[in-house]
Every structure is written in structure tokens, then in C-alpha cells.
Specification:
Layout: H1 4-15, H2 41-48, H3 70-88, E1 94-98, H4 100-112, E2 119-123, H5 125-141
Parallel strand pairs: 1-2
Amino acid sequence: MVKLEDFAWLLARSLTRAPTSNGEDTNREDSPLSSSPVSVWSGYNSLVHETVPVERIGSPPLLAAPADEWSSLLTIFMQTQQITAHIVGPGRKTVISLDMGLYQPANKLQMTRNDLNHLILRPGELHILMAQLRTLGSFIENSGVDLS
């Protein structure tokens, strides 16, 4: 779907095209002869649209309740889905990283409710690293490598 502003740029850029005598298009973005009164696409977008930061870092809203209660987890899940729907559109999956103390009850809550299928729950990086180190330790423990 073409936005009205984009169509206006396309029309203005097309109407101001002036080929040179040798047939070269002077309105190409990489042309050294470009002198169109209508700016190139990137310049046009920077003038028309508001500047969006590359990334946004923030913290979730605080809840005045223990994090491991079912109602708190459900509130957090619904808020994160609203944020995801606002940012990337409805119907998208939401990935939530939790430490093991919250991952286990959150996983149980997700399994009991059908309306939480849009969530992808995963343990946090610390717990993934701890599981990897424990696996390496179990592998090395009786292999003779630790006797050297």
C-alpha cells in the first residue's frame, strides 16, 4: 500500500526528470549532474517523517505485587503483548526471558491458559550459562581430563 506522502514524492520526482542530450538521467541519486529541486528518497524521508531512535532502552513498569504471583505474571504478560502489538503489530509472538524462579511459574501459567500462546518463554542468559557449565563439568568429571 502506497502512502499519500510517498506517492507525492514519486510524482514530483518523476515530473522533474530531465534527460541530458546524451540520454543520461540527471535525476539518478548517483548522478553527478543531479540538480532536481526534489530531494532524493532518503533526504525526503528525513524531512517528512519524524526521527526514530535506532533502539529504545527502558524498564518495564513496576508492579506493587510479588513477581511470582499468578496475577502479577498475567499482568506482565498482557502488558508485554500490548507493547509488542504496538511496536511490531498484532498477531506477533513475544519473547520473554525470565530467571528460573519466575520461568517455572510462568511456564505453568502459560500451559494452563489458551490465551497465552503468543508468548515464547525462555530462561535468562545466566541460567542458560549455568546449565552449559554444568553439562561441561559433568562431561569432564569422569573423563580423566581433570587428572592432568
